[in-house]
Amino acid sequence: MAIQLYDLAGAEDDRRFSPYCWRIKMALMHKGLPFETVPWRFTDKDAVAFANSTSVPVLVDGGHAVSDSWKIAAYLEQAYPSRPALFGGSDSQALTYFFSHWAVRTLHPLLMRAIVLDLYGQLHEKDRAYFRESREKRFGKTLEQHGGDPAKAVAELRDALEPVRPVVAENDFVDGKGPGFADYILFGVFQWARSVSPVQLLEPGDPLYAWRGRMLELWGGYARKAKGYPV
Amino acid sequence: MAIQLYDLAGAEDDRRFSPYCWRIKMALMHKGLPFETVPWRFTDKDAVAFANSTSVPVLVDGGHAVSDSWKIAAYLEQAYPSRPALFGGSDSQALTYFFSHWAVRTLHPLLMRAIVLDLYGQLHEKDRAYFRESREKRFGKTLEQHGGDPAKAVAELRDALEPVRPVVAENDFVDGKGPGFADYILFGVFQWARSVSPVQLLEPGDPLYAWRGRMLELWGGYARKAKGYPV
What we know:
Two copies of one chain form a homodimer. Chain A has 231 residues and is α+β, with helices and mostly antiparallel strands.
């Protein structure tokens, strides 16, 4: 049986917006592993309880279930060593772990401010009350207050991306000459945005604009074909 | 002839405080390459003009001169491939390039605010006017204003280091199970501090405190023996 991936969906089954799930879909494509996705919503806690998880991604490979995008990537690398590597080696994996923490801490909050109201509008009806309540508690303010100045959040996000630009300008990918899990971590941020929001995160002259274009084209345009807005 | 490294010094010849020079001294030790350092001050522009540089580090290896710490590291990796690797491979080198930009952009300005007045007090007399003028122009304020709240800068630095903690807690080093150039980039920040300032940057319970201890002990305590304050 093919690998199954529980994947966060919006109102439509095929609007998939989780940055963490995008990391894993890209990683599965990178490894050339067949998989099918199962649309899941925030309030479907029971559906992933078998994996001792309350969120996605959850990956099921035969009888084995793994949750948490970092643990899933490490699992795939270990379980499929003869497939293309997601990390160049153990030192690269450690550096990618830093990159993940940096992205989640620095980029995710800025993007959330930029798109939260668009995102809310794309949620499945059954998720809306849960999302509003849990996020307003986390942010300490209403969604409307948190997302009230998306243009400022985009400007801050562009600024926070500064240390990545020289890397992709010199090497094409964050991971060097070819894409790796660090690229999928960063790309998850951009797919998250375009799956729910028309916001233009990058200017065409930005080295990251060209990088994102390369990412969207991988594997016959796998990510570009996903439901979302033009970038 | 041994490799020569032009290395920024304070009032005393053996007070060496440049974070960029520390990167390279650690890299040379890592590769097991014999080298001697040449004390250099900010105003000794003529002494490194032969390398088309106005700053250090400058490395001279036989007839070959290289400036800029990133270029020097890449040179050492390429010129001495049979020696222990500074980068695990090309993808790790790309990720380390990101790490360097992140450190310079995020950590260096915070550390400067924390130590600039101590640093100024440790400069060679001939460098003081140059340092004050060039830095006050860069900061847009006096040194005294810029360094006026070191405790706040230390608190912000501790916060900015957050994405590195899970990495060194899990792997001992930023580069994984053994130290690599990303470790030397981060360590340069801490050696910069302790060479000129008694400021306590880290609490003993911090995973980074233990990591710094491991770095100080490498190669028989090479870095710990350098002139500076206890950490």
